[in-house]
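Form 12-C: Joint structure prediction
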Amino acid sequence: MNKVILLKNRPKGRPSLEDFEFTEEEKPKPKDGEILLKTKYVSVDPYLRGRMRDEKSYIAPFEVGKPLESGIIAEVLESNNKNFHKGDFVNGMLQWKEFQTSNGNGLNKVDGEKAPLKAYLGVLGLTGITAYLGLEKIGKPKKGETLLVSGAAGAVGSVVGQIGKIKGCRVVGIAGSDEKIDRIQEKFGFDAGINYRTTDNMKKAIAAACPDGVDVYFDNVGGEILDAALANMNKYGRVVNCGAISLYNKKETPTGPRVETTLIKKSIMMQGFTVRDFVKDFGPAQNQLAKWMEQDKLSYLETVVEGFENIPQAFIDLFDGKNKGKMIVMV
Amino acid sequence: MNKVILLKNRPKGRPSLEDFEFTEEEKPKPKDGEILLKTKYVSVDPYLRGRMRDEKSYIAPFEVGKPLESGIIAEVLESNNKNFHKGDFVNGMLQWKEFQTSNGNGLNKVDGEKAPLKAYLGVLGLTGITAYLGLEKIGKPKKGETLLVSGAAGAVGSVVGQIGKIKGCRVVGIAGSDEKIDRIQEKFGFDAGINYRTTDNMKKAIAAACPDGVDVYFDNVGGEILDAALANMNKYGRVVNCGAISLYNKKETPTGPRVETTLIKKSIMMQGFTVRDFVKDFGPAQNQLAKWMEQDKLSYLETVVEGFENIPQAFIDLFDGKNKGKMIVMV
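Section 2 - Result
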């Protein structure tokens, strides 16, 4: 039999285990042109929370009673498709199933010799590519500028900060524990860090950590931390709206200070994006990230949880910041 | 003697005549290298409200007890500067005085033969240039796209809409009276208009007037109209934050729905600007606007108030939408 995880209910506020349903189905057989895949590593990411809402977005919402999906590394067990061979490993958006078939569309082969397979879900995968392209295409940091990053110890934020250092910026990170603040400075080379959980006045704390103001703010969290960052932006500052994890579980439309007057006064740009906007740049981005890895300029951390049945809990734990870097489930 | 208008108090909320003080001083004499100027036309603009606050912005705040200033067309009465001659007309940021001296820095000569002098404060001046460069540099409308403009009957908005039509867009305007809605359609060629004062649900009204969604929103007002526009933006939409007149007189920090989730979901860019950001493009912008005027592609309206002593009231009247197009005081 084949284990499958379905969306049972659309979560109200913070997701819980009750929102997921475990079921079993027949192990599928690949038809002509198809391959049979065995799930090896499953990426769980904050943005999946958005797909659990019944709302129009850049990607269709998950359907209640249907399998969830995310970035997955899988092994090809059987192939009726000339582009794939038994023993290949592939990366793509796949369903939360132990086994599944695919016609190969949207799957990329990954080379476990060049980098650990898991890295293709993290620093060499959509996570690293999100960090790289969000910064390159929108933030456009220049040497000597100050780059502020929220979710700085996370999978995206830690890569953003390291790229900022490679580009010659002063890099300041915001994260939610002293341990994370130590980590971003010691392991990822950030110049300074702010623990927002122990800071009363984020606006002042950012001003103190960024004495020349903020030129680029790479935002993974939204909400009040974004407000505090905006108050510290320099003229011609750029805000990269990558994520808003602080708002994803809100039941009501969140409100806050209006931004338009600040944007006008300081000629600030705010731009939201999703990594799929830049799909034609994925190849060069992955090559650049791989090169920096080889040169030991890019470190990363992973939290690896074992067991297919732990995928939902690993996802829920993201909202408590229990992950160190990329959260991955090894099946 | 020489009449002068000073900022008496920083306005609390809506400006009133009590915030201005009339005084007299000796008529100045130009020194070596200086010119003596007589004020002819004074531009009053919503953005001046921002300079009346004691806040850091793109331009220094006005000082209490000091003369106000704005865009002014003046006549050269005497010249000790080889770049200017008696009888020339100049355009620049000048003080609210009947007579003043200048070393000529920041002043541009204007040609009353090519266009009416007043036009250099409006469609050929910072107003028209703001419309043109905000749209060209940030909004980047493409043929076939939908352009939504607020403050559509105003000096900037009416030019934005006409340029949108020149570029081949569907252009929809928002304004505050049925008369203005008629005007933007009949005089300025907008495809549709929404009177926000008689519309209960702006979000639905915009959806109805923009059946293909909004690609570019040129915002002169901010606040709830911006919220309604954002709700109707298409993927990759661009918001040009030019002004926020609905917020300028607020005493408390205005709040509203947070934008970051919307920006991310639809890969929307919002960018604030002030026309000075693009100062090196002023010449080509003015040339393009003059060419369209010659080709009868660009209409404009002015409200001309007479009398130096009416400058403050003309400014205050902007916040009640009493102007048709550019508000100018003829001295």
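Section 3 - Comments
Chain A has a mean pLDDT of 94. DSSP finds nine helices and 16 strands in chain A.
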